[in-house]
Amino acid sequence: MKLKVLLALCFFLGSILLVFALLLFCFLMAPAEYILDEQVAEINAKAFRYQEKIFPDLPVKSRYEYPGIQAGLKASDTETTAYVLVPRDAEHVRPIFKAYAERYLQGILSQNSGSGYYNYRKKDAGVVGRIKLLDGIIVHVEGRDYQAVDQAIDSSALMIRNPEANMFTDIVYTDRYLVHIVVALFVYALALLPFWGRVASWAATLQPHPGTQPVSEAELRQRLLAINETESPLQVIEGKKGKMDIVWRLADAKWAGLMTLNKIKRTQIIRIKLSGEDAACRAIEISKTVRGSADARTLHLGFSWSFFRGIVFFHKEYESQYGLVYKQGCLTIDNAYRYSFSSAEMKSPVIQIIRDSGWKYKPVIFFSKWLGG
After folding, report:
1. What is the pLDDT along the chain (373 residues), one digit of tens a residue?
2. Which residues are CB-neighbours of 159 under 8 A, at least 6 positions away?
């Protein structure tokens, strides 16, 4: 069982690491998008020596100040505005680039970003822009559309298009293939979903005890319902379409703090579906938690909700809280509620009944056989 779980975890991690490996391959195979013209970028006395050569199509030029840069330039005409920022040292290039972009894009909702670039659109002003990190220099251009922005960057004279740039350059340094990448990741995850379900189910499945003949489906159902007649904290509820819910209410408490009212409800469910064809009890584990609080000092109402559905290989949890409770006829500060949970403790008696009945216990993510159920 432990070896199967380990192999399943290796499969899950491997399928995720494959994506990062492909992204790393793209980075390694991507030449720079532009090459810096060091002569045009030469700086003298905190200004560009050849300022007139930079963005020659944008005639209005002025110095631009920003914290942490040794030189800055603003160039514009009636439709396009460009900024060039040169950080003081290579160590602070990335932090300044990020801080500048975040400061400028604050409040702009329509934007996307990648390695060394931010794209945005000011819908109310009809303006688009790119903020790019090009060979250690920050270039920011705004225009009427992205074509105009790209033309301005290409004609800046500061940066020269790298003749060795390829498709990987576009993937890493632009958003040209962004939609394709998102679609590919979605298709990849969708294709892996049935395999994840099957591998997880295979790793967690427990076979019946050797030599045990399977009882009928009706008999196993009666044995599970018999749990209700014991002193077990579990309750078995028959559901729709032959399903059964085995419920353990771990916590259902209300209590008062010194200035607060609190409530928590925690429920663990094993939802099972019996299949007489292969003598298998398919099971989905469900966890629900609802928390609420009211603070009299701040008049604040708090609410949180969590939900899990799938396969649990192992899980242990303990929680305890104190508060103002009514106990033995008077109010006192005492333990308001306490619970501990072990998935093995909940599942063991259920699994024992199933295996003793000659059936296998098969955890699944979905009951659908196409998705590994």
Report:
1. 678 888 888 998 999 999 999 999 998 999 988 888 888 888 887 888 888 899 999 999 999 999 999 999 999 998 999 999 999 888 889 999 999 999 988 888 788 888 888 999 988 778 999 999 988 899 999 999 989 998 999 889 888 888 998 999 889 888 888 899 999 999 999 898 888 888 888 888 889 988 889 999 999 999 999 988 887 778 888 888 888 998 887 666 555 554 556 677 778 889 999 988 888 899 999 888 887 777 666 667 777 788 888 888 776 766 666 665 555 666 566 565 565 667 777 788 888 899 999 999 999 988 877 776 6
2. 34, 35, 36, 37, 134, 135, 137, 139, 153
DSSP state of 33: S
107: left (phi over 0), alpha (psi -120 to 50) or beta: left
Pairing of strands 316-327, 330-342: antiparallel
- For residue 351, CA distances in Å to 204, 240, 270 come to 12, 22, 11
What's 114's DSSP letter? E
- At 246, list the tokens: 């085995």
**Beta carbons of 61 and 158 less than 8 angstroms apart:** no
Q: How far apart are CA 126 and CA 146, in angstroms?
A: 12
Whether the Cβ atoms of residue 271 and residue 239 lie closer than 8 Å to each other: yes
Q: Name the token pair of 48.
A: 């560009």
In this structure, are residues 280 and 359 in contact, taking their beta carbons and an 8 Å threshold?
yes
